[in-house]
Amino acid sequence: MASPISQKLEEKLVCSICLELFRVPVTLPCGHNFCKRCISNHWQKQKQEPTWAESGYTCPECRRGFNQCPELEKNVTLCSVVELAQDGEAWALGTERCKVASSELCPQHRRPLELYCKDEQRCICCVCTVWQCQQHQRVLFEEERSKRQVGTMVHWCLTSQALLEESMEKAQEESERIKQDSSEGLKSVILSKFALLRKALEDFQWQTVARIEQEQAVALGRVGEDWTLLKDRLDILGQHRERAQQLLACPDNRTFLQVPSYRTTYTQNHRMVWVGRDLKAHSVPTPCHGQGHLPLELLLEDLPSCVAPKAPDPVDQGNPSAHRATPKAPFMLLLFPDHRNLTFDPKTANKYLELSKGNRKAKHSPSTICRQQEQGPRFEPWQVLCTQGYSHGHHYWEVKISSHSVVLGVTYHSLCQERKQGHKFNIGLDGGSWGLQVREDCYLAWHKGRSEKIQEQLCRNLGVSLDYGKGLLSFYGLGERTWLIHSFHSVFTEPLYPVFWLCEGRAVELCWRD
């Protein structure tokens, strides 16, 4: 039982507002002490009262008023006494002269910790047993510690460290492989070929070289980021191992059981699996068909198989009429053999978008509300999705637009169907859609609500290349020559659907190949 001196000391160390030990005690000009947060909240409530303008700031103890809010400074001496009381040194004066460490006392009831509650996974005192954990499963400290098997924790840390070091070595090897890859040789071959065909292929020369360098830089950057991340995980794992070894050396059962499980915390917050990335050039720009087959064959001669486009189907080569009907077909088949024939989805089309009979052409008719038979979640903006969606592989499609003020791109199926304030379209305004806006004087590449201005020649025939596995989405201009307008590099996690937005009076046609 506590002595009268101990009780009086406890009363002097209690805040009269919260009735608990002082937390950051401060002293008012009248001499009374309070918790800094308690007196600040008290005055904040006073300001909301109608009579505050007359009374001003007052002391909760003596009701003394202050015209201005007193400056609250920490009472260092009183704070030191409170810290001694919290550590058990002041409270030990009224006990049986035994010194009890604060870690051995219940933080709620200040009683010695005696049992371990398996339901709440914490050490409890006798008061907790009666009031809070009466129906819970309680065991002795020694019994619970014997089940924890601290040795397996250290073994797991060592095993994880070995796996991380192995992943770091793989990342380093991948980085060296990329540096020694055939990129330099590929640039040399392409440069030599363009030297022979400079007059006919001048527009493609530096674009191709820059494309290869960009792919190499992106691959090296990703591997470098993975290596840095693995290094950080290794440092964190080393810290966990040291703490686990220190815990093994702790002889006190209570202290051991109150420490959270390192394995659970580390597994949830720091688990990382390194996935290597291969550097493979793709979609290398090739000379346009208008220059003839001979320049095309000379340019692609001796190129590595990883970048050389596939040869066209022999049936198409033996059908000259097909070549004359679609002048770009042989060249685009070589560049992008995975052409897809798309169709619009009437269920998603805005009510002002009129679709053709085969759903291959969409036109914005503001004067007529289109009444398709299909019912579904239509877009509020002037947008329409395609029926086809792609979640792997490489895909290419072409579109023909009537004029500018058109947006084309790809999106997850969860694209918002409502109009966003301040925008006429939703394509590229979130993290799940990518779009290219065709304006009268330039292009705008949209993603996550940010746009990038692109000064390129405007044309009505556009090509879209989607390499899902590599996270690459590219837009091309098609005409007398073929050029890259813009490329997005990202990580796709859901199926992607082609999507379009049309201004008033505009039309978009999906190009098909037989």
Question: How are the secondary structure elements laid out?
Answer:
Elements: H1 4-12, E1 25-27, E2 33-35, H2 36-47, H3 52-55, E3 57-58, E4 65-66, H4 76-86, E5 115-117, E6 122-124, H5 126-131, E7 138-139, H6 141-148, H7 150-179, H8 183-196, H9 198-248, H10 253-258, H11 262-270, H12 293-300, H13 314-317, H14 320-325, H15 329-335, E8 353-355, E9 361-364, E10 383-385, E11 394-401, E12 406-411, E13 433-438, E14 443-447, E15 450-454, E16 461-467, E17 472-478, E18 482-489, E19 497-502, E20 507-511
Antiparallel strand pairs: 1-2, 3-4, 5-6, 5-7, 8-9, 9-20, 10-19, 11-16, 11-20, 12-13, 12-19, 13-14, 14-15, 16-17, 17-18
From the structure above, extract its key features.
seven-stranded antiparallel β-sheet; elongated; 514 residues; 36% helix; Znf_RING_CS; alpha+beta; Herpes Virus-1; immunity; 20 strands; Jelly Rolls; single chain; six-stranded antiparallel β-sheet; PRY; 3 domains
Q: What features would you describe in this structure?
A:
One of its GO terms (cellular component) is cytosol. The N and C termini lie far apart (96 Å). The protein has 15 helices and 20 strands. By secondary structure, it is α+β, with helices and mostly antiparallel strands. A 7-stranded antiparallel beta sheet has the order 8-9-20-11-16-17-18. Strands 10-19-12-13-14-15 form a 6-stranded antiparallel beta sheet, with no helix packed on it. It has a 3-stranded antiparallel beta sheet with strand order 6-5-7. Strand 16 and strand 17 form a beta hairpin. About 11% of the residues have low confidence. It folds into 3 domains: 96 residues, Zinc/RING finger domain, C3HC4 (zinc finger) (Herpes Virus-1, 2-Layer Sandwich); 123 residues, no CATH class; 173 residues, Jelly Rolls (Sandwich).
